[in-house]
Structure to design on (692 residues):
């Protein structure tokens, strides 16, 4: 087995991002915007592009948008990079706009998975897209990575294709696809791509691009981390580890002398026909996610293998600063002529301070994509960006709309011991309890907040990213700082449920952690003489959730006077552990072997999914008929009536409920319809992005 690597600095085989010799085209300098047309290329003096990036998002030259980071990073390496943003995918002509790339097409769906972007959890069509001018929907195809890659191949049949981003990352092996309700093969095959870069891909991207520039696409990239390729089989010198041994505590000792171990996952054909094999593959994939000790994975698809190299080494603080300090125009491309792009309007005055999440929530894509080791920027880099926003971003009024990342309060939090971190295989650092090796100090974040709001011209620094409340309670000083200076009336927070059954499948703390945080929050608000409120988010229909669980959650909401406005029904995203539960009916958080696998009930039927959502909106008269019916079937008719302890009334307002129910029913002495919602405690709408 390979020796563990230190995550303090990149290992010897991982070069620093900005240590490469620049490509010869560096002489063309920095473009005001990466070109989207031949006319722009002519102005820059380019006869061709070295790399052409194809994306499903509008091109916004800002570090919150993946293609801007990738494009500017490659530009800093000396390459000429063009952008084809939201092309018409119905034929190949739009993919010829910049000519043939000298090195490769880089293809992504954009900041969001195209299927999550286009469809609701009930598989209904969305009609808006936050990453498109005017918020217009339908500007990218379903399964955008596959479609774009096919059109690139049609445009230039011999141009190499490299795919990446969240859509490709979460489909790098055989995966359950919620929208077609079947297991699909690795996206490498359907896209017919040469390479797939997964996760935060800067390190792999720079290495691969320089190699292609030197020797073309037909070479061995298997020593590059964070990469998926197609192979004919396992090369000589490698030993395959049986999947069934991976929950054996002696497995590591038995193989300690083997320097080249690859883990063979159950094949595509196996996971299609055997749901327990699917759950086992999911468990192994997530156990092999720590870049300090993860081994390569391989999975047979017919007569070919998909080979995944070990996860990428996280960026150092110096490298993170280098990426975010690149020359961004910090604006949408001029071709949009000032059209409003909702995602840009939301983040234009916000600052990303870190990446990654060690929470390990089983339904979330962040840890799968960005990893669980926090990659933080330095104070100096963050403060410099705030000054840039102040001086150069149109419409700045002195308010930084968010200072955070995937979570608000994991900045510079890490394992106390780097050797322990490199050996760890826990999927979460905070579940079922906060690990004793985790340094939970919020002091660096508190100091950053103070320095950020002291920047001249800054009136307020908001925290809009979700606060990890089980961490926050470890630092009452942080909660006090947050409430006194960085909350604007409400703070969003995500307990997700109240009942232990679903919480154990989500890998979320018990509701007691939320209540402890609420006590600290409310006390700090009273001391500051401010009227602030928590906005809790909840998920309906997550695997392992019963009707009784949702009923108890609804009763908790009513006792605490919360009325959810818009709620989230669980959506199985590719490759998530919760998705393995949903599809397989087994729990991959525990050993998956014949005879010992733990079953999990999944909420699949549309009727039951809507019932669970209705419980979250118990106050909506439209849901009362279905809730009354369900409560009677559950033997809880005692919860129907006008009392405070009861969930829904026994009457129906005119014009509400099921078709044909346009009259009041039941208690004639209580004819009044439901009152106005509690104005300060409604749950705000969620972002369309995958949940953190």
């Amino acid at each position: 087995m390979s020796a563990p690597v230190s995550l303090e600095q990149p290992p010897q085989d991982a070069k620093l991002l900005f240590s490469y010799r620049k490509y010869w085209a560096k002489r063309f300098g920095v473009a005001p915007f990466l070109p989207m047309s031949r006319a722009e290329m002519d102005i820059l003096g380019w006869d061709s592009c070295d790399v052409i990036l194809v994306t499903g998002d509008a091109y916004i030259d800002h570090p919150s948008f993946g293609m801007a980071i990738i494009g500017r990073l490659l530009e800093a390496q000396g390459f000429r990079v063009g952008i084809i943003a939201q092309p018409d995918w119905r034929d190949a002509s739009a993919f010829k706009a910049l000519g043939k790339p000298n090195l490769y097409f880089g293809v992504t769906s954009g900041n969001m998975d195209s299927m999550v972007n286009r469809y609701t959890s009930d598989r209904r069509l969305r009609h808006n897209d936050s990453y498109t001018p005017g918020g217009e929907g339908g500007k990218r195809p379903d399964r955008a990575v596959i479609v774009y890659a096919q059109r690139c191949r049609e445009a230039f049949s011999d141009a190499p294709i490299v795919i990446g981003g969240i859509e490709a990352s979460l489909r790098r092996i055989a995966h359950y696809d919620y929208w077609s309700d079947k297991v699909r093969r690795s996206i490498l095959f359907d896209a017919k791509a040469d390479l797939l870069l997964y996760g935060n891909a800067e390190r792999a991207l720079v290495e691969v691009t320089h190699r292609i520039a030197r020797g073309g696409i037909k070479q061995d990239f298997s020593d590059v981390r964070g990469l998926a390729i197609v192979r004919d089989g396992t090369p000589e010198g490698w030993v395959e580890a049986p999947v069934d041994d991976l929950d054996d505590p002696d497995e590591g000792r038995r193989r300690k002398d083997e320097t080249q171990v690859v883990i063979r996952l159950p094949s595509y054909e196996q996971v299609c026909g055997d749901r327990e094999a699917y759950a086992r593959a999911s468990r192994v994939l997530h156990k092999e996610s720590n870049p300090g000790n993860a081994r390569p994975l391989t999975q047979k698809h017919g007569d070919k293998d998909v080979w995944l190299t070990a996860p990428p080494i996280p960026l150092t603080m110096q490298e993170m600063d280098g990426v975010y300090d690149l020359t961004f125009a910090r604006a949408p491309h001029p071709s949009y002529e000032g059209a409003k792009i909702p995602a840009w309007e939301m983040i234009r005055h916000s600052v990303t301070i870190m990446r990654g999440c060690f929470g390990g929530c089983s339904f979330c894509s962040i840890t799968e994509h960005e990893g669980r080791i926090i990659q933080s920027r330095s104070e100096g880099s963050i403060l410099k960006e705030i000054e840039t926003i102040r001086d150069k971003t149109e419409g700045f009024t002195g308010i930084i709309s968010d200072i955070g990342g995937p979570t608000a309060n994991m900045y510079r939090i890490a394992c106390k011991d780097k050797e322990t971190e490199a050996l760890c295989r826990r999927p979460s650092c905070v579940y079922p309890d906060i690990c004793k090796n985790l340094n939970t100090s919020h002091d660096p974040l508190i100091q950053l907040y103070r320095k950020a709001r002291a920047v001249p011209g800054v009136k307020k620094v908001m925290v809009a990213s979700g606060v990890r409340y089980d961490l926050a309670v470890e630092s009452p000083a942080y909660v006090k700082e947050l409430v006194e200076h960085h909350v604007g009336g409400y703070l969003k927070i995500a307990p997700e449920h109240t009942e232990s059954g679903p919480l154990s499948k989500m890998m979320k703390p018990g509701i007691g952690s939320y209540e402890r945080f609420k006590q600290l929050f409310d006390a700090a608000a009273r001391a500051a003489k401010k009227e602030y409120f928590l906005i809790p988010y909840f998920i309906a229909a997550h695997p392992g959730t019963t009707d009784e669980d949702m009923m108890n959650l609804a009763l908790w909401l009513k006792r605490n006077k919360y009325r959810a406005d818009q709620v989230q029904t669980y959506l199985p995203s590719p490759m998530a552990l919760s998705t393995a539960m949903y599809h397989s009916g087994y729990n991959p958080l525990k050993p998956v072997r014949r005879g010992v696998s733990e079953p999990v009930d999944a909420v699949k039927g549309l009727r039951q999914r809507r019932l669970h959502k209705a419980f979250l909106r118990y106050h909506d008269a439209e849901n009362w008929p279905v809730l009354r019916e369900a409560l009677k079937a559950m033997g809880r008719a005692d919860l129907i009536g006008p009392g405070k302890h009861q969930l829904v009334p026994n009457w129906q307002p005119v014009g509400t409920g099921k078709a044909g129910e346009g009259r009041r029913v039941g208690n004639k002495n209580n004819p009044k319809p439901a009152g106005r919602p509690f104005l300060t405690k409604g749950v705000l709408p969620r972002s369309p992005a995958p949940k953190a």
Observations:
- The chain has 24 helices and 27 strands.
- The domain at 349-463 is CATH 3.30.750.210 (Transcription Regulator spoIIAA).
- The first helix runs from residue 38 to 44.
